[in-house]
Write the structure tokens for this entry.
Amino acid sequence: MERIVGIDLGTTNSLIAFVDGETPRVIADPTSGDPLLPSVVAFLTNGQIEVGQEAKALLADQPLTTIQSVKRFMGLGMEHVNVEDRRRYRFADEGGVVRFALPGHPYTAPEVSAFILRALRDRAAVYLKEPINKVVITVPAYFNDSQRQATKDAGRLAGLEVVRLVNEPTAASLAYGLDKKEEGLIAVYDLGGGTFDISILRLHTGIFEVLSTNGDTRLGGDDIDQRIAERFLLVGLPEAVQHDPHVASSARRVAEQAKRALSDNDDTQLRLEVPEKKVSITRTLARKELEAAVDDIVARTLAPCRQALKDAGLEPREIDEVVMVGGSTRMPLVRRRVGEFFGRKPLTDLNPDEVVALGAAVQADTLAGRRKDMLLLDVVPLSLGIETMGGVMSRLIERNTTIPTSVKETYTTAVDDQTAVDIHVLQGERELVQDCRSLARFKVPIDPQPAGMPRIEVTFMIDANGILNVAALDMRTGRERSVEVKPSYGLTDEEIERLLEESIDFAEDDVTRRLIIEARTEADTLLHVTEKQLQQHAAFLQLGEEAKIRAVVAALKEAKEGEDYNRTRDLIEELGTTSAPFAQRIMDTSIGEALGGRELGRV
Amino acid sequence: MTTVAVLRCWRCAHEHSATLFCPRCSAVQPLPPQTDYFTVFGLPLRPAIDEAGLTQRYYDLSRRLHPDLYQAGTAEEKDASLKNTVLLNRAYRTLRDLITRGQYWLEMQGEALGKENNRVPPTLAALVFEVQEKLAEIRDARAAGDGEVDIATLTEIRADLDGQMQRLRTALVGNLEQWPEPSRSQELLVQLKRLLSEIAYLRTLLRDVEKESEVSWNA
């Protein structure tokens, strides 16, 4: 069974994890030892692309072409981009899906995310010494269909098979080992860098049944940083300086550091220096001031909590355990507010940055068929419906319905010889189409017939990823009709294919990486065996033979660390040939021993 | 709705009636899509059910059927597991709730509540009139800038409606417990339809009151 790894593709940081025996583990960067990969991608003018720490280091110098928090733009259209976003980045205004104006050409959010996924994949491949093809990626529970689809597209663009999208709070509950609990009601409060989720789960001997979920996909630690920057650093500066990308970017960084410091200390120093804009600010910030300034942001998380409980038919006090996930839950203010709301102390034992990735690895293990004791029953976060006469949304699938689920609708035609039915799919809780999120438009072809004659049955299915699939059946002929999908804020299949072709350079890069890893793994195995034989069977060596073998071993050891996989392969071959007579002698002897030691005397 | 079609196991070709798992080789079998929700759970065709037992059965079946467990399986297994899970999830959602279960039973009897259930059920006419009047008063009072009395009156109305709902639910349980009773099915059907239509109307009314409460709280 091929290995499947778990990825937490976060707003601020991303992680990759696997299950080592029984224990889920996060794979750290081999050089720095840091398990977190900053979700930052920098596009340099020379065409080079940096990801992670290297990209983060470029934020201050080239804020416009260094994309941070790309997750906030997944599955969004240009009309969802706000003033703050426009100050921060330059967009290629082509309508439809968001495209960043970057050196070379415009990039969509899934393309930018694909760079992060590739970096994680390489990290895991090097660590595990095997190519990584299959992954589970986590998404905020409150992500809509377009945002989920965008995440899946990012995986595809990175050359990965996304076996499953798992909701972050649900993944976190898996990592907490709550399955050891027989029965119980759990609330998972997940406040990350850019998104907020609340999920209410019922546990029942290894079954994790999500009862309800709610959240805000544009609320998180980023908002807190922004508030600190505005309130304590930028205030008083001239408007133009405040909105200068360099100044704003530096201010956010200082704010973020201060926020972290204030989780452990009562006060901290703020220092913002941007000499070229004549900005030099130093001041002390007390935790009390910080809390007063951001209290309304934290309070905004409680309305979704209330709604999720109501949907589950529960009162806050009925919850047995509150699990905290996401870096922002390190803030004492957040812990206090959540504790007050549920009337109990939240669980904070696990590292809130790692818990989602660990849970993703656990679910990946289940999907790989390696364990059968846990089962997730997740829900669709938002109601799904279609546009009907007068711009009204007709709900087909209610929010918090357990997935996979499906519903069938029958359509006919209104005029003679109509050749297609247009279906507009929406997601949201409001009555009017204009207040819901447009997901996609479908065109179902129909053979020309008098009005009202055709009968087309359309099946709307939400799969275990929370993603919509549509199929149409002509009920008169029993024939499946193909459905033309036009996502409102996403990439069509053709666009993805085109992007994959365009990124052929990267694909080659990927293939190379894979070949290097494979060669390295093979070399390691051979070196290990050879070393063992040299030590255990030195008696079988002929004069000068060891020196010859050792010379090739040394060459191979050096080659395998490099990028030239062809040289590694050649040396593997050479080592095989050089040590073949020696190996043959060992082999003969062990056969001889097995035959009763008759050959032994000849050696 | 109750089909007794003979099906054949895709793996061992054993013939069986609609079932989730082959009785001989226990491979997962796709249920015919029109299978009724009681049969999905292996329950007799009776609308009164043990709710705790239903949940337990739902978990047990999910543990054997869920697509997550067949990720590495054959195409037949994957397909059957997905289709059955979709059906199981829908069946559970319908049967676990008293009201949706009642509505489903009504549909199984070939009857359905009209989607636009606009006529006020006669038994609720007086109550509806009273509540609407009070809601109108509250709106007027708020328009005049007097929001104080709102909450108390609204709480009172709500308690009243909740009481009515409880009464109807009890009556519904009573009705469902009497099925199947061939000699009185027509009488039971008429009563079931009336109860469900009253409940539907009361729900709309409760939603109106709730909306009004939210406005008052936020004011």
Chain B has a mean pLDDT of 84.
